[in-house]
Amino acid sequence: MLRGSAQTVPTKAQEHTTSPIFISEEDAPDHGLTMVPKVKARLTAGTGSLETSGEVEGYYAFRTKFLKRKGRPGKMVLMDVVGDSMEPVVEDGDTVLIDESQREIIAGGMFAVGIEQEVFLKYLLRVPGKLVLQSRNERYAPIEVDMNGDLVGTVRIIGRVVWSCREYVR
Questions:
Q1: Are 122 and 110 in contact (CB under 8 A)?
Q2: CA pseudo-torsion sign 116, 120, 126, 130
Q3: Could you give the CA distance from residue 62 to residue 126 in angstroms, rounded to a whole number?
Q4: Domain count, the chain
Q5: What percent of the chain is modeled with pLDDT above 70?
Q6: C-alpha separations of 57 from 33, 36, 77, 145 in Å
Q7: pTM
Q8: Residue 42 and residue 82: Cα distance in Å, rounded?
Q9: Angle at 115 between CA 109 and CA 117, to 5 degrees
Q10: How many CB atoms lie within 10 A of CB 96?
Q11: How far apart are CA 131 and CA 36, in angstroms?
Q12: What is the pLDDT of residue 16?
């Protein structure tokens, strides 16, 4: 991934160097890249996170063709994950790419979901009258939201997870 700030794109002779390439957000489209914001909010793979700031902490470059295969590049955001309820698929410390334009519930799809002030990373299932937030880790019980009850107005589907990444050395 490439980070924003300005420098030049490498010449053919420089293409195979291991130095990072810095491209400004304005120049990214000319090079087939889309800069995706990473926000400070953290999704919990557990019992709920109150870290919901939409403040951008940086931008990461992705190939625009790749993002278009996943959804709508202009509606994507990166968020870090905390907790172990989605292990082994998504682990504590992973980063997920969320397409905020994909809010329609697809049974078994992984979504970022807000309930009241908390945000979660869960598989979503819809059963008559209920929305079920399911963890991958069997140690966590499903969270059932009565869609006719008091919480219905506080549930918001933030978007579908379309990609994730993991660092092995921190």
A1: yes
A2: negative
A3: 32
A4: 1
A5: 82
A6: 19, 11, 11, 32
A7: 0.80
A8: 7
A9: 135
A10: 23
A11: 29
A12: 52
